[in-house]
């Protein structure tokens, strides 16, 4: 059954005591705040009068017949991926009255997340230095392309750009051959934005833990570029330690063999051998026992050194197997393997269904919005799904009346002057 939105959903969960003022838009910031919201925090999403840009990043839109975002209720699917469990409030804080409303909200908030350009909120009195005077306990997280310092601090940064500058695109894609040059390739989702959101959420929770000890909030400077560099992981270490410049390897792994996608009779299968036992088990399944005992391939280091010879032999043998048969045989033998699923196949997968990874939600106006569940399963304080991704400004008037105690006449004047919507 879909989870229905209420006018003001009651929060539960480990973060239900926290209020987040979300001044972010697009993906990295909203990804951060949705994590906090799923874990129970109250998230007030402050949008411009026209709304978060991603409401128009379609098709597809919520209404199937919509070709653009001009139809009522036709928010783009993109917006729904990272704005669950939030209250939408439309405030134009470029106007003094709007900025004052945000300052009042910040005075009682625990966390503020923003992703404006460096210094972009200072002119409104909404920067950390200004709000820290209003609320010394405020944890203020700034998400930018390149951080608050350094020669690139003033630059705008989008995921695609950062994937390139941060090295990810130099190691993603097909390897260079005599016939074809390697072409830089980004990932299929904005993964730098998403990982930045995860780092930001983790950092915010660490700052909240620190506040419990010191009573003081702090400023968190979180950049897409820094996060992408951190996410180079073993590839970064391969360079730092061994001075080896990683290059695109297609589906190969720089440090493990066999560890890639192999063509079979009716598609491809991924085989991922992480140790020598798994490799020998693979050879047994393929009835290539001698290959498992070949001195050239006994250890992983041997197999990496003799990658081309081994891969050729494995490819030749695997080409005789149907996909499902080889997967079944390898699973029985304890060799990590699996198919390459399309997105529809992912959501039809029995494991995805068993883990309840799709959460259907119903917005207050009746629109049903399927969303992807929070992935971690808690034994005592699970993530909860209180409200669907909101309509633009669905809580503006109620918040002004309930949280800021403004009377109806004052609210109407703010609407007429274009401060709120």
TrEMBL record:
What's one GO MF term for it? CoA-transferase activity
TM spans, by residue? none
Q: Which InterPro entries match?
A: CoA-transferase_III_domain, CoA-Trfase_fam_III, CoA-Trfase_III_dom3_sf, CoA-Trfase_III_dom_1_sf
Name the keywords, alphabetized: Transferase
The lineage's top-level taxon is: Bacteria
The molecule here is called CoA transferase
């Amino acid at each position: 059954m879909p989870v229905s939105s209420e006018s003001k959903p009651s929060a539960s969960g480990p973060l239900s005591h926290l209020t987040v003022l979300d001044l972010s838009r697009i993906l990295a910031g909203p990804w951060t705040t949705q994590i906090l919201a799923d874990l129970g925090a109250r998230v007030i999403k402050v949008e411009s009068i026209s709304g978060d840009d991603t409401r128009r990043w379609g098709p597809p839109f919520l209404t199937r017949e919509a070709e653009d975002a001009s139809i009522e209720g036709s928010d783009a699917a993109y917006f729904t991926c990272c704005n669950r469990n939030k209250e939408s409030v439309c405030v134009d804080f470029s106007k003094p009255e709007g900025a004052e409303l945000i300052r009042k909200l910040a005075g009682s908030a625990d966390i503020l997340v923003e992703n404006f350009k460096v210094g972009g909120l200072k002119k409104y009195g909404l920067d950390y230095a200004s709000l820290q005077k209003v609320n010394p306990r405020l944890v203020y997280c700034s998400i930018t392309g390149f951080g608050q310092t350094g020669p690139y601090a003033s630059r705008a940064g989008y995921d695609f750009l950062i994937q390139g500058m941060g090295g990810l695109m130099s190691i993603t894609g097909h390897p260079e051959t005599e016939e074809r040059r390697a072409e830089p390739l980004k990932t299929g989702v904005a993964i730098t934005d998403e990982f930045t959101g995860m780092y930001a959420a983790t950092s915010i929770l660490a700052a909240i833990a620190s506040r419990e000890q010191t009573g003081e909030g702090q400023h968190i400077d979180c950049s897409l570029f820094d996060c992408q560099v951190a996410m180079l992981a073993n590839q970064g270490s391969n360079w730092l330690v061994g001075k080896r410049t990683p290059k695109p390897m297609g589906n190969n792994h720089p440090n493990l063999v066999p560890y890639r996608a192999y063509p079979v009779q009716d598609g491809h299968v991924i085989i991922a051998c992480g140790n020598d036992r798994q490799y020998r088990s693979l050879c047994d399944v393929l009835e290539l026992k001698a290959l498992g005992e070949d001195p050239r391939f006994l250890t992983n280091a041997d197999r990496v050194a003799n990658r081309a010879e081994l891969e050729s032999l494995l490819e030749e043998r695997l080409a005789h197997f149907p996909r499902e048969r080889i997967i079944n045989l390898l699973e029985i033998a304890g060799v990590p393997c699996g198919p390459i699923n399309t997105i529809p196949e992912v959501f039809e997968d029995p494991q995805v269904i068993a883990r309840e990874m799709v959460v259907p939600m119903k917005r207050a106006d009746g629109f049903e919005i399927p969303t992807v569940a929070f992935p971690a399963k808690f034994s005592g304080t699970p993530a909860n799904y209180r409200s669907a991704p909101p309509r633009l400004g669905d809580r503006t008037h109620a918040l002004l009346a309930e949280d800021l105690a403004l009377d109806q006449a004052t609210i109407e004047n703010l609407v007429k002057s274009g401060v709120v919507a």
